[in-house]
Amino acid sequence: MTDQRPDIDPDDDDFAPSRAVIADISDALDRGDGDRLDALLEPLHAADIADLIEQLGPQRRRELLRLYSGEIDGEILAEIDESIREEVVEQLPRDVLADAVREMDTDDVVDLLEDLEGPERETVLAALDDPDRVAVEQSLTYPEYSAGRLMQSEVVTAPEHWTVGETIDHLRTEEVLPDQFYHVILVDPRRHPIGYVTLGRLLSSQRATRLRDIVEDSFRTIDVLQEEGDVAYAFNQYHLISAPVVDAHGRLVGVITMDDAMSVLDEEHEEDFLRLAGVGPENSLSDGVVDTVRRRAPWLLVNLLTANVSAFVISRFSGTIEAIVALAALMPIVASMGGNAGTQSLAVAVRALATKDLTRSNAGRVVWRETVVGLVNGLLFAVIMGLVGYLAYGSAALGWVLAAALVINLLVAALGGVMVPLTLERMGLDPALAAGTFVTTLTDVIGFLAFLGLATWVLI
C-alpha cells in the first residue's frame, strides 16, 4: 500500500510555522507587501504570531507592525512576551489598541497594564467599559504576584437554591458571559461561594436537579492576597480546573482558571532554571546587547569574586604545586567532579523545594540519602582515579591522595547541594538565586583544600 502522507521536513516543528512559511513572511516584509503578509499570518494561531513578533529584531518588528498592525487583536496582544509588549503597544495605532483591549479578559488586561506607563496605560484604561475598568483598577490595587492580580473578574454564578433547568435558562438569556468558563459557582445571598458545578454535570443532569446536589468535591477557595506560586501549586496538587477568589470577608471577587495557574507554574520553572544558570529571569532573546550585558555582568562579577576565593586557596599551596607539577594537572579533576556532583544534588533539591516535595518533615531523610550517595560515588570514582594516579604518574601515594580528595569533595558536594538551598529557603531567600554560586564555591574550595592539603601532608 502506498504511503499517502505528505513529505515532512524533519527539521520543522509540527506546532510552529514551517520554515517555508517563515521564509515567505520574511520575503513579504522585504517587499513591504501588506496583503501578502496578511494572507500568510491569517491561518496562524495567535501564539505563533506572537512568537514571530518576538523573534524579529527591533527594526523588522517595527516593519511587521506597520504592515500588520490593523490585524493585531486582543488574543495576539495577550500572547506577546512582556519583555517587548510595551514596545509593541507604543507602535500600535490608538484605535487598534483600544479594540484589542476590549477583546481581552480582565486578567490579561491587568497583565498588560503592569508593563505600561503614561499615555499607553491611560489609552488602555479609557478603552474599557466602565465595569471592566473598575475591575481592572481594583485588581491593580492588590500586591504584585498575588491571586488578585492573577484572577479575572468575569465569573458565572448562580444562587445555591437554583435547579439545573433554571441555571441553563439563565445562561441562555445572559447577554455577557466569559468566552471560556468551566464551572458555575454557587453563592449564598451575601455572595459567599459555597460550591461549584461543572458544565458537564450541569448538561447531563435532569432539569429538576438542585445545583447543591451535584457540586464537585474539589471545591476550594483562594484568598485574594495568596501568593501566585502557592496558587499554581494548589492547582497542580489538587488537579483544579478553576477556583473562586474571595476577599477578606469571604465574598467572591473573581476566578482563576487552569491556564493562568499553569502559566505561573511554567514561569516559576523557567525562573528556577535561569537562576541556577546564573541568569536572571528578566533576560530575553529579544533584549539588545547593552541590556543583556547589564543584566549578566553582575552575575559574572559574583562568579569572579568566588573564583578569587578558590585562587587564594590554591596560592597557599604554591610550594607544593612547584614541587609536584602533576598536582596542577589533577586539580581540575577534583574540582569538576565536585562541581558536577553538587549541581546534580542542587537541581533536585531546588526543584523539590519549589514543588513542596522537600519539607522540614523529610529534610533529614533526604540529607541522609545524599550523604550515602555522595559517599558511594566518591568511593567508586576514588578507585578509578586512584589507579589513574598510580599508573599514569607512577606514584601510589599520589593515587591515594587523589582518591581521598575525591571522596571528601563528592561527599561535601552532595551535602552542599541539599543543605545550601535548604538554608537559603529557611532564611527566606530564593534557593535558586544564589545556591549555584555557593555550591560551586564550596566544592572548588573544599576540593582544592583537600587535594593540596593531603598532598602537602603525604607527599612533601
Task: Describe the protein in words.
With 460 residues, the chain is mostly helical. It has 3 domains: 19-141, MgtE N-terminal fold (Alpha Horseshoe); 157-258, CBS-domain (Roll), CATH 3.10.580.10; 289-459, Orthogonal Bundle (Tetracycline Repressor, domain 2). The protein is built from 21 helices and 6 strands. It has helices at residues 19-31, 34-41, 46-55, 58-68, 74-79, 82-91, 94-102, 106-113, 118-127, 130-139, 147-150, 164-173, 199-204, 228-238, 258-276, 289-315, 318-323, 326-354, 363-393, 396-426, 431-459; strands at residues 157-159, 183-187, 193-198, 222-223, 242-246, 252-257. The strands form 2 sheets. The chain has a 3-stranded mixed β-sheet. A 3-stranded mixed β-sheet has the order 4-5-6. The chain starts with 18 loop residues before the first helix and ends with a helix.
Q: Which H/E pattern describes the elements?
A: HHHHHHHHHHHEHEEHEHEEHHHHHHH
Total helices: the number is 21
Helical fraction:
55-70%
What is the averaged pLDDT score? 85
Name of the level-1 CATH class of the largest domain: Mainly Alpha
The count of β-strands is: 6
How far from one another are the termini?
A: 77 Å
**Percentage of β-strand residues:** 5-15%
Q: Provide the domain count.
A: 3
* Major sheet size, sense and barrel closure: 3 strands, mixed
Radius of gyration: 29 Å
Structural class: mainly alpha
Strand order of the largest sheet: 1-2-3
How does the overall form come out from the CA principal axes? globular
Which stretches of 5+ consecutive residues score pLDDT under 50? 1-10
State the CATH superfamily name of the largest domain.
Answer: SLC41 divalent cation transporters, integral membrane domain
Looking at CATH, which topology of the largest domain would you report? Tetracycline Repressor, domain 2
